């Protein structure tokens, strides 16, 4: 893996080679990843996976024509040939009126903020094995756990660097540490499965393996005896580990490409209230040690905190340069990119803020409802907002979680669901997309 400085220099050389080959403009991205993953099951080591790779991607423009190529061989002679091939491909590509690099005057010029994304810790496989065994042992020690699907511990680091012919060059490193466990409870046809995991940038922030394992076991046991519910309308409460998907649908609906294609259920809602007043959705790319923190986006534009939804009101779209040109706007620093093609659009660390009730207070007002801890399937229409997904969780009776529930379907429309959302105040920064416990009134539940 190259250093950030060496990677940026290699990319600048590649961009220069593309210009020499006839490109009017070019940008390049380098991505390297090194990781070790140790998996155990029933107290024994199952496998150790070690990956160590690096790739480079080049995008060139000849007029309004463009092409993207990638390679894993970074030898200078190979990169010269890569540049020549990309330019030859671009000359044969169809014209795209919206193609081009990010605006030169908008590129990041200041020093990158210190986001503390890399801790420099590289555990030995023996340490990872011990961590995975500790998680599984704790999980199997929970009364009612009947079998294990295994536990794992991993550690790694990555490097992303970008350079453009407009003069931007930069890179940053990030580390990653995780522990996970998946357990079975019960016997025969009554078996239930659940798990737990935690992923952090710094090892010092990772939950103890024993804590993660116990949670996996307790979650599996809590699902024993799951039954189906009769169909009908009822309030539905989303646990934070699945409720974040609701805001994920919002992020997809406000992406520039979806708006430009007119394929979004929020198409006409810019400046309008999509959540109740008091609730806001914030994108925080500069969070220290954040799982999706980044100093610049996939086109070299600076990133900054933004209220995507402010006091319930949708403030605008998430735009890369191409979708911004289509819509006659400026890019917002939300381009994301792999090595194999043009940028897409994505948010960074996202939080839903503004909940004022405790979780217990939120549940207390529910006489008969459904608490969701698992969502199944992809039954969401991003154009109409129609929502229908399989779900599992627990019955809420008089404000208390009681019987486990499985094999039901919850349905509604995302615009209505968002408008009727109530948020608790139990937000934690545990994922890249974080929400508190969420209540949606009036959803339809189909059971048996």
List keywords for this structure.
single chain, alpha+beta, PmbA/TldD fold, 6-stranded antiparallel sheet, 5-stranded mixed beta barrel, globular
Molecular structure report:
With 448 residues, the protein is an alpha+beta fold. Helices cover 23% and strands 37% of the residues. The chain folds into two domains: 4-221, PmbA/TldD fold; 226-448, no CATH class. The strands form four sheets. The chain has a six-stranded antiparallel β-sheet with strand order 3-2-1-4-5-6. Strands 7-14-15-16-19 form a five-stranded mixed beta barrel. Strand 5 and strand 6 form a beta hairpin. The radius of gyration is 24 Å and the shape is globular. The N and C termini lie far apart (55 Å).
What's the structural blueprint in terms of helices and strands?
Elements: H1 4-20, E1 25-41, E2 44-62, E3 65-71, H2 76-92, H3 125-140, E4 145-164, E5 169-185, E6 192-200, H4 209-222, E7 232-238, H5 240-253, H6 256-261, E8 280-283, E9 306-310, E10 313-314, H7 321-327, E11 335-336, E12 344-345, E13 350-353, H8 359-364, E14 368-376, E15 386-397, E16 400-413, H9 414-419, E17 421-423, E18 433-434, E19 438-446
Helix pairs in contact: 1-2, 3-4
Number of helices: 9
Q: What average pLDDT do the residues reach?
A: 95
- What is the H-and-E element order? HEEEHHEEEHEHHEEEHEEEHEEEHEEE
Helix-and-strand structural type: alpha+beta
Relative helix content: 10-25%
What fraction of the residues are assigned to beta strands by DSSP? 35-45%
The number of domains:
2
Side by side, the strands of the main sheet go 3-2-1-4-5-6
Q: Give the terminus-to-terminus CA distance.
A: 55 Å
Shape: globular
Main sheet summary: 6 strands, antiparallel
Radius of gyration: 24 Å
- How many DSSP E strands? 19
Uncertain residue ranges? none
């Amino acid at each position: 893996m190259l250093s950030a400085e060496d990677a940026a220099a290699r990319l600048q050389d590649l961009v220069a080679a593309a210009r020499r080959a006839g490109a009017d403009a070019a940008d390049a991205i380098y991505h390297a990843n090194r990781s070790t993953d140790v998996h155990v099951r029933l107290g024994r080591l199952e496998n150790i996976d070690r990956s160590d790779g690096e790739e480079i991607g080049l995008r060139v423009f000849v007029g309004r024509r463009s092409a993207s190529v990638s390679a894993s061989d970074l030898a200078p002679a190979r990169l010269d040939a890569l540049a020549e091939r990309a330019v030859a491909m671009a000359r044969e590509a169809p014209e795209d009126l919206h193609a081009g690099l990010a605006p030169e005057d908008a590129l990041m010029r200041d020093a990158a903020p210190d986001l503390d994304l890399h801790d420099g810790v590289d555990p030995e496989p023996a340490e990872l094995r011990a961590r995975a065994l500790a998680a599984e042992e704790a999980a199997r020690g929970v009364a009612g756990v009947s079998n294990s699907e295994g536990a794992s511990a991993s550690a790694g680091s990555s490097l992303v660097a970008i350079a453009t012919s407009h003069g931007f060059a930069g890179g940053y490193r990030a580390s990653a540490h995780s522990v996970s466990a998946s357990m079975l409870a019960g016997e025969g046809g009554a078996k239930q499965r659940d798990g737990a995991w935690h992923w952090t940038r710094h090892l010092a922030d990772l939950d103890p393996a024993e804590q993660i394992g116990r949670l996996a076991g307790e979650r599996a046991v809590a699902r024993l005896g799951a039954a189906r519910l009769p169909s009908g309308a009822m309030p539905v409460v989303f646990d934070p580990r699945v409720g974040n998907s609701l805001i994920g649908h919002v992020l997809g609906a406000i992406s520039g490409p979806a708006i430009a294609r007119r394929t979004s259920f929020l198409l006409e809602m810019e400046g309008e209230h999509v959540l109740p007043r008091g609730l806001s959705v914030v994108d925080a790319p500069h969070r220290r040690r954040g799982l999706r923190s980044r100093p610049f986006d996939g086109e070299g534009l600076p990133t900054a905190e933004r209220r995507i939804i402010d006091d319930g009101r949708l403030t605008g779209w998430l735009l890369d340069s191409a979708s911004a040109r289509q819509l006659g706007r400026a890019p917002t620093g939300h381009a994301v990119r792999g090595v194999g093609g043009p940028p897409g659009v994505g948010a960074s660390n996202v939080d839903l803020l503004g909940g004022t009730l405790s979780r217990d207070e939120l549940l207390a007002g529910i006489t008969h409802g459904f608490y969701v801890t698992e969502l199944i399937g992809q039954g969401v229409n991003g154009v109409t907002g129609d929502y229908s997904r399989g779900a599992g969780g627990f019955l809420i009776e008089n404000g208390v979680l009681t019987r486990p529930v499985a094999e039901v379907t919850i349905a509604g429309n995302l615009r209505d669901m968002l408008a009727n959302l109530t948020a608790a105040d139990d937000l934690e920064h545990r994922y890249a997309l974080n929400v508190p416990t969420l209540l949606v009134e009036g959803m339809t539940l189909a059971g048996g």
